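does this look right to u?? LYUYDEPV version
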Amino acid sequence: MYKDFKLGLCQMSVSMSKEENLSKAAELIGSAVSSGCNVVVLPECFNSPYGTKYFADYAEDISNPDSPTLSALKSIAIQHSIYIVGGSIPEKRGDKYFNTSMIFNPSGEIIGVHRKIHLYDMDVPGGIRCFESDVLSPGDQATIVETEYCKFGIGICYDIRFPEYAWTLSRDESVGILLYPGCFNMTTGPKHWELLMRARAVDNVVFVAGCSQARNTEASYVSWGHSIIVDPWGQHESIDEKEGILIKDIKFQELVNVRNSIWNRKHKRFDVYRQ
Ligand SMILES: NC(=O)CCC(=O)C(=O)O
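got this back:
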């Protein structure tokens, strides 16, 4: 059911130029592959600055196989023969916009498309104020993709705050890892990013990874960074706020050991819980 692999999270710095962002993604993925990664993840909004004012201008129609980001990621997946969780991009679909992640297999085929389910609307006095729902529509599907290593559960950033969603993904035993492209900010990042990633790992006895944009203090939305990989014990490795790659061997014996000794997955009391 599980096969070990090497995971690389590309914490990239995103600029105003889509072209530059696509070449940066190619460069970082190339470095991750040189270090032996079989699965590489990009951040939320990796081809566009994060922010509702940018989404329409950077959006792509992914039903068109020649759309620039889709075709770039497809070629990179084929070139290196790896899985790519393509962060997310603003997607235009009919007259609606979504925050969308495309997942590619080593043959360059799209094996999953996740549209962010929980839109990030938040207003913290003196801190972050963001209303994705001004522009975006929410996705309505839980996304699980099948790979030769295990099934991956996919969420985007704010989706991490919802334990019900993480359980929806990880109740299938063959889901060994939850992957969240993200872009927390300087208000909630320091307080909640690591906490939420570790909580979801321990709740579900699963690996969890959050791949952030690198911090750009010139941007209108300043990313927290600190891409992170958590094991099923809740132990984590992370990097700082700068551009870089976090690499870890994902070894499933650890997951099996914890599931065999801590039984919270089996002790759930759906007869007591209320919706
Ligand atoms: N882009 C996002 O979804 C940000 C989520 C976030 O920062 C949070 O606190 O939640």
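Residues 202 and 234 are 6 Å apart (CA to CA). idk if thats expected tbh
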